[in-house]
Amino acid sequence: MAHVTEYLPLLLAGLRTTLLLAISTMVVGLILGMLLALAKLSKSPWLSRPAYAFTNFMRGIPEFLVLLLIYFGGTQVLNGMLPEGGFEVSPFGAGLAALSVIFGAYASETFRAAFQSVPKGQIEAGRAYGFSTWKTFRYIQIPQIWRVAIPGLGNLWQGSVKDTALVSIVGLDDLMRKAQQASQTTREPFTFFFVASLMFLAITLVSMWIIARLERRASRGFAGAR
Amino acid sequence: MTTNGNGNAAVALEVNEIHKTFGTHEVLKGISLTAHDHDVVAILGSSGSGKSTFLRCINLLETPTSGEVRVKGEQIRMTIRRGEPAPADMKQVDRIRSKLAMVFQQFNLWQHMTILDNVVAGQVHVLGRDKHEATAKAEEMLKKVGVSDKVGHYPSQLSGGQQQRVAIARALAMDPEVMLFDEPTSALDPELVNEVLKVMRGLAEEGRTMLVVTHEMGFAREAANRLMFLHQGLVEDEGDPREVMKNPNSERFRQFLTGSLK
């Protein structure tokens, strides 16, 4: 156990990187997911078809493969385009790109279903009172879609927290990698992987509590949902 | 309110030769209507007669295939986009819509907002009133329709009759030029119909300009000063409600009144 206190600062630094990656992934993923959902719901096939194709592609291949594609493939493509060469995608950048693209692909389906769950009359009432398309979106649709979307988005968040562990393989100094390093030097793999597990579990528990609160807040006014 | 209309009052709404086609089915075959300030026009018709579609064409919830709508003399400008008629300027449409507050059959109160916020939202986001002023106005209107004890509740906690009265308060708060009622009592349990009709009669008496699509013959007879009967997309009969209901000009309206045309 003495080793744990000794390596704790290292593990906490890893935890910080893990959280930073997970939170950035969620922010970028939510924006991407919303844009993809709006594209899918668009009347124009020029928007909806590519959005569906992209989503299906991303959901159809393993997360790990997406990461490798971006990390190694990205470096190769960028160096091919830049004459000087020597360009390298950082592990964090590759992780963020891969995980947020995956988050966005799944979130777009959650958002799409949530948009479709808002009764037409709610939107019509907005339009009939002079709300523009944007104001209807902002003041009527968005507040109502959260109620439906939050449970699904919560699952995606939990998933992407765990997926950050994959990024350690391409060299990100996250919690997973730090635990691995500590267990190798001390030859106490069980101890350090167990401590890392507890830290992941702590993130999950705190997230569950926050998600439950957000869900309650978003459900105000809906029968049987308080 | 026995004579036909308020001939001396200013024209509030002018609708000219509205046609509406869904696919190959022509729902409205050229309907016109002029409403002066303080007019209460009851629009009757069996289901499928086009009466709701007509009302929804006035505020462009449905885009008319052809025809003109003028509100307080201002014509809604139309154009052709990708071969279909469309409003030329959505900003103009939004502005005009805010003057044509609509009350829906299914109330359509915003579920995520409290009763008070439902009545405040349009005033703030559309009319640009400040929050304080809008709240005061909302409270006044909710009091007028008799639901001021529910301001902090959500729509799902109210009965249908209460929700519809809130919807009427939401409409009134916009200071509309014309109020459009689309079968406001059709979704209500029979015992709740009267509380809504009572509020609507009050509005008629204080001189609100109203277009009311309804099945309530009593309301049409007593509160309206004009009646319009639609059948298969055409105006089959119109006039002073009491006269025309006693002596219909058209056979179809006679059948409708005796209940044989449902």
Shape of chain B: globular
Q: Which band does the percent of strand residues of chain A land in?
A: under 5%
SS strand fraction of chain B: 25-35%
Given the C-alpha coordinates, what overall shape of chain A results?
flat
Reading the helices and strands of chain B in chain order gives EEEHEEEEHEHHHEHEHEEHH
Main pleated-sheet profile of chain A: none
Quaternary status of these chains? heterodimer
Instruction: Determine the fraction of residues in helical runs of chain A and give it as a percent range.
Output: over 70%
The DSSP helix count of chain B reads 9
**How far from one another are the termini of chain A?**
45 Å
Please explain how this structure is put together:
The complex is a heterodimer of chains A (226) and B (262). Chain A has 226 residues and is mostly helical. Chain A has one domain (2-225): MetI-like (MetI-like fold, Orthogonal Bundle), CATH 1.10.3720.10. Helix content of chain A is 83%, strand content 0%. The relative contact order of chain A is 0.15. The mean pLDDT of chain A is 91. Chain B has 262 residues and is an alpha/beta fold. Chain B has nine helices and twelve strands. In chain B, the strands form three sheets. Chain B has a six-stranded mixed beta sheet with strand order 8-9-10-3-11-12, with helices on both faces. In chain B, helix 3 (115-125) runs parallel beside helix 5 (160-172). The longest helix of chain B has 16 residues, at 190-205. The two termini of chain B are 29 Å apart. The mean pLDDT of chain B is 93. Chain A binds chain B through residues 121-122, 124-133, 135, 139-140, 143-144, 147, 218, 220-223, and chain B through 59, 61, 90-91, 94-98, 100-102, 104, 106, 108-114, 121-122, 125-127, 154-157, 170, 174.
